[in-house]
Specification:
Blueprint: H1 3-16, H2 21-36, H3 65-87, H4 93-104, H5 106-115, H6 121-131, H7 139-159
Helix pairs in contact: 1-2, 1-3, 1-4, 1-7, 2-4, 3-4, 5-6
Transmembrane segments: 137-158
Protein name: DUF3307 domain-containing protein
Keywords: Membrane, Transmembrane, Transmembrane helix
């Protein structure tokens, strides 16, 4: 899933338990893996590789890194802003941000693992690869299905939750 989807779902999870930040962090982090199991589309990165055996040790010498970071930054920022807009009130903005960030956290931890392949990141990365769908959708279907999924989750939380 793209980071925006993870952020919106993490924010939705946070809105369910606004007075329990530890539960929010754990549940939003876990939501990442649950929704990564759903077939989806991931945008291609030019410099960063998350494939098994991928080597990012020379990443900072690759001029394409700036484009990857700009894309990732835009995606994460858009998701964070959406989560705040949809779920936050003045009293809950901190916990909504926590949920959105925790929902996105497993993806940057993949990059960290590629740079430092040690425990506990190795176990987390193995689990992430295992649970991640092996079925990738094409761009139009993959992005629209994620938008629809985030919309349905948001609607359910805002009307039922």
């Amino acid at each position: 899933m793209i980071l925006s989807t993870h952020a919106v779902v993490g924010g939705a999870v946070a809105s369910l338990f606004p007075s329990h930040p530890v539960l929010v962090a754990v549940a939003a982090f876990a939501s990442h893996f649950a929704i990564d199991a759903i077939p989806h589309w991931d945008y291609p990165l030019q410099a960063i590789t998350l494939k098994p055996g991928g080597d990012n040790r020379r990443l900072f010498q690759d001029p394409r890194l700036f484009l990857d970071l700009a894309l990732i930054g835009f995606d994460a920022s858009a998701g964070l802003l959406l989560a705040i807009w949809l779920f936050a009130a003045p009293a809950t903005i901190g916990v909504i941000v926590l949920g959105a960030l925790a929902g996105m956290a497993p993806d940057p931890l993949q990059l960290l693992h590629s740079l430092f392949p040690k425990q506990p990141l190795s176990t987390l990365q193995s689990f992430h690869r295992w649970i991640h769908t092996k079925r990738s959708l094409t761009w139009p279907l993959g992005i629209s299905s994620q938008a629809l999924f985030a919309t349905v989750v948001s609607w359910l939380i805002l009307t039922v939750g």
